[in-house]
Amino acid sequence: MSDNKLFMPFGVEYDLIKGIMKNPDKHLIRKASSMKGHYEDAAALDKIIAAGDPLHYEVFEKNIPEENGHLQFCISTTQPGLVGDECFMTKGHYHRIPETAEIYLCLTGRGYMLMKTKEGDSVAEEMFPGRMVYVPPYWAHRTVNTGDTPLTSFCVYPGNAGHNYGDIEVEGFPKRVYKRNGKIEISAWKRKS
Ligand SMILES: [Fe+2]
User: How many A from CA of 89 to the centre of ligand 1?
Assistant: First the structure.
């Protein structure tokens, strides 16, 4: 490997309680207004946007080459809250190179990782501090916060994996997560007509 291609080692500091990377190169912020089309109750989302458009989730990353052999890593934090009676969640995505996996180690909070394949398989894995969820190749994935505090995870995935948000926006996830009378319910998606 020539000198000008050598990637130098580095360290990163986190605040594991707040769920933030202290010196990120990239800080993705998604507010309620960027979640249109993802929740069952569109009118409830519009009300939340009109009432101040609160933070939904954020992702902190470093600049890592998008190449096979490197590892991308991030901290992602999803805020607690409800849209109607549906729990706050991330948009979710497939990887641009679908045969790439990802691990999520939950650091704070409580929730689920919803996963689905294009063949119609669907799984919800519980997330709580100390629990790791393995997202295998070919599974779209989204996190859902069912608690009252931020749900934070540390994630690692192959350097060249990339993101594909478009397919899942069209397909949707077959499971939705609700909080009703303080109880968590996971049910099948029934699109409102
Ligand atoms: Fe991913």
Answer: 14
The per-residue pLDDT for range 98-109, each reduced to its tens digit, is: 999 999 999 999
Burial group, residue 66, by CB count within 10 angstroms (0-12, 13-18, 19+) = middle
C-alpha 2 – ligand 1 centre gap (Å): 31
* Number of folded domains that form the chain: 1
Which residues span the domain enclosing 144?
19-188
Question: Residues of 74-92 as b/e, b for ≥16 C-beta within 10 angstroms?
Answer: bbbbbbbbbbeebbbbbbb
Q: What gap in Å lies between CA 40 and CA 144, rounded to an integer?
A: 14
Q: pTM, whole model, 2 decimals? A: 0.93
Q: Residues near 94 by Cβ (< 8 Å), separated by ≥ 6?
A: 138, 139, 140, 163, 164, 167, 168
Mark out the alpha helices in the chain (DSSP H runs). Answer: 42-50, 166-171
- Note whether residue 7 is domain-resident: no
